[in-house]
Amino acid sequence: MLTGRPIEQRGPADRCGAHKKETDMALERTFSIIKPDATRRNLTGKINAKFEDAGLRIVAQKRIHMTKEQAGVFYAVHAERPFYGELCDFMSSAPVVVQVLEGENAIAKNREIMGATNPADAAPGTIRAEFAESVGENSVHGSDAPETAAVEIAYFFSGLELVG
Ligand code: UDP
Ligand code: MG
Predict the structure, then answer these.
(1) 33: β partners
(2) Of all atoms in ligand 1, which is nearest to the CA of residue 91?
(3) Which has the closest alpha carbon to 139: 126, 153, 154, 157?
(4) N or C: which end of the chain has fewer CB within 10 A?
(5) Burial group, residue 36, by CB count within 10 angstroms (0-12, 13-18, 19+)
């Protein structure tokens, strides 16, 4: 399970301004992974275009290759599920791109852009409908709630790496 103190969603620079406009208040950040099936097929740019076209801003991004143990900690919430071992093998099988996306209602918006977990159920035009290979190898991860977004961002990024 990911533990530790969730960082605030905004970087230090944002906290300096007591004069932030009210229109900025619904800005949210979410955590995203472009998974190994997608990096293998050179789909990073096409997937990023989906985020940017929908109005999400990539405020942090890096390419990493996780160990099975690191993937296991990230997905510990699924440790009891039958697909957990296979999921950790897959997520550590090749590089991934981890990223932080920012925008209005970014968490829900990103889930919409991603589409359903199983590509067979994903709406047309979504990332998973267009690119996913199977329910397991489904091209992207996206946080499902503000609490998980904060913990997942903090697992991969320091505050100084978030540049909004
Ligand atoms: N997964 C799988 N088999 C399943 C359900 C999920 O291999 O029957 C994998 C899949 O890669 C999925 C991840 O486990 O993206 C996490 O599952 P979750 O239910 O959280 O789906 P998500 O939030 O990614 O849509
Ligand atoms: Mg999930």
Answers:
(1) 98, 141
(2) 11
(3) 126
(4) N
(5) buried
